[in-house]
Specification:
The protein is an all-alpha fold. The protein is 74% helix and 0% strand.
């Protein structure tokens, strides 16, 4: 398994080397072109060699970027070992351009998030968000969502707030809005911000219906709890039943103990006690 800190250190080193190499090739080409009169026909040979080196290194960089993108389908299919091997290949291969390396870090963060390795996912997301992403700036939103989710799972509510704050002024796709709702509901429930969580509950329920079953159950249960806290018992009852249909209550409440309040009658049994 690739250690997150080791990956970040390696990528920093590789990005420095690639920047120096690019500057060297470009600088050498400029010098040769300026001195073409003194070099005679030899300058064409030198420029050809430099151009060939640039093309080869660019091709290797393109392959790395393609492998990084392809690893996403492996992660989605649950083939984590295959994805890990592919990402390791991307990160271990020299690339002239930074895009391949940054995509490699992003996909490794996606993999660690899917594996529920929250500290590694958070470290990788923070490392990526600390850099200029250029052509892949679109991954910024997904990184922030993963960082917020990972920090919440680690009990860092403040860290989650900081990650989410960078999303509120951005234009989100439907998929991103759905993911934001899931993370935001979790954050607001942990912050006991019940009025904000219950606000616009009709729209939130519609979005929650589009989530994967487990996430949908958690989100609708959190909305049900917010509805109960704000006196909207009709919504609380409806959403509690919806959550029961989508997930096992014991497992759901084991992950989010605050949800036992919704099933207080069937709450966790304490060993050594008897029903009255």
């Amino acid at each position: 398994m690739i250690p997150a800190e080791a990956v970040i250190t390696r990528v920093r080193r590789d990005l420095t080397i690639s920047a120096v190499l690019k500057a060297t090739i470009i600088g050498a080409a400029i010098v040769v072109f300026v001195m073409r009169g003194a070099l005679g026909s030899a300058h064409l040979l030198v420029l050809s060699v430099l151009g060939f080196a640039w093309i080869v290194l660019s091709y290797r960089s393109a392959i790395g970027s393609r492998l990084a993108v392809d690893s996403q389908s492996l992660i989605a299919a649950g083939r984590y070992e295959a994805a890990e091997e592919q990402i390791e290949q991307v990160l271990g291969t020299f690339s002239l351009f930074r895009t391949a390396k940054l995509l490699g870090i992003h996909q490794l963060a996606v993999l660690r998030h899917a594996q529920r390795r929250w500290p590694d996912a958070a470290v990788l997301c923070r490392a990526l968000l600390g850099r200029k992403l250029g052509p892949i700036k679109g991954v910024n939103k997904q990184c922030r969502l993963m960082l917020a989710d990972a920090t919440l799972e680690m009990g860092d509510v403040r860290g989650a707030h900081e990650a989410l704050a960078g999303l509120y002024q951005q234009r989100l796709s439907l998929a991103e809005a759905i993911n934001l709702l899931a993370v935001q509901a979790d954050y607001q429930a942990r912050s006991e911000n019940w009025s904000e969580l219950a606000a616009g509950i009709e729209t939130k329920v519609q979005l929650a219906e589009l989530m994967p079953a487990a996430v949908s159950a958690r989100t609708q249960a959190l909305l049900a709890l917010a509805a109960r806290k704000t006196g909207r018992n009709d919504w609380a009852s409806f959403l509690t039943r919806r959550a029961e249909l989508l997930a096992d209550v014991q497992e759901l409440c084991a992950r989010r103990p605050m949800l036992w309040e919704l099933w207080s009658v069937q709450g966790p049994k304490v060993e050594g006690t008897e029903a009255s």
